[in-house]
Amino acid sequence: RAMDRPTEVQLLRITCQAYEPARKGKPKWRRGLRAVASAAWSALLLLPGCSPPDAPKLTPADAAVPVTVTNAVLADIPQQLSAIGTVEPYSTVAVKSQIHGVLARIGFKQGEHVRAGDLIFTIDPRPSEAARDQAVANLARDQALLRKAQADLRRDADLLTNNIVSPATFDQDRANVDSLKAILLADAAAITNAELEVGFCFIKSPIDGRIGRLLVNEGNVVKDLETVLAVINQMKPIYVDFSVPEQYLQEVRERMANGPLKVEARIPRDCS
User: Fold this and answer.
1) Best-predicted range by mean pLDDT among 1-15, 106-120, 158-172?
2) CA distance 95 to 118
3) What is the reported pTM?
4) Which residues are registered as beta bridge partners of 211?
5) Helix axis angle, 126-161 relative to 167-200, nearest 10°?
6) Tens digit of pLDDT for each residue in 161-196?
């Protein structure tokens, strides 16, 4: 490529000879050889710069990009605050037994959704049913005693008019009738209490929600109002508790004074 441009090579040779310092004591043919070598080396270095420039290449940044044109309008830009929140249940119920007994049956699977009224635990009902039957029998016995006392009171009332019995005997008969009436009331209350205890043997869910881990297995003895059997969390509706940076607190209070603020809660993708 140097032979195609003799003018450039000649110019470079003249330039190199012009700046070559004269050295004493060396042959002229050596100085001429060094000048030719320097000129050739400079030509090789300058040839890329002297070659014709390549055609410009378009980069992706130079390509045409479609744009959308619209009219500018005046509007309010909403201010958004982001914070990490903690989800909390709307209500939580710790399920306990109201009677002392053996846990006989479990009616749910851990972590599943239960509805209000679903049977979730069964305490052995046989002792409570036996106590209820005894209360019913006591009521029947006392009712019979009351009928006899009432009959004695009527008979002694006739005898008292004829002065056959003393007034003290008549008063005793009347006291027996009143006492048996009170005993019947106590028997009725005992039956009601026994029926309640039988009902307490069948524990039902008080709310709709998700029941957690089983805390007591079948066969264990549970104490009344002490042993927690499971925990139910109401998930609909639900609370989200989050904290706002203190620097925005005053502004949030001012906005809340004008009306409720819009809040959006999102679940991270890796937690969905």
Assistant:
1) 106-120
2) 13
3) 0.59
4) 232
5) 160
6) 777 777 888 778 788 888 999 999 999 999 999 999
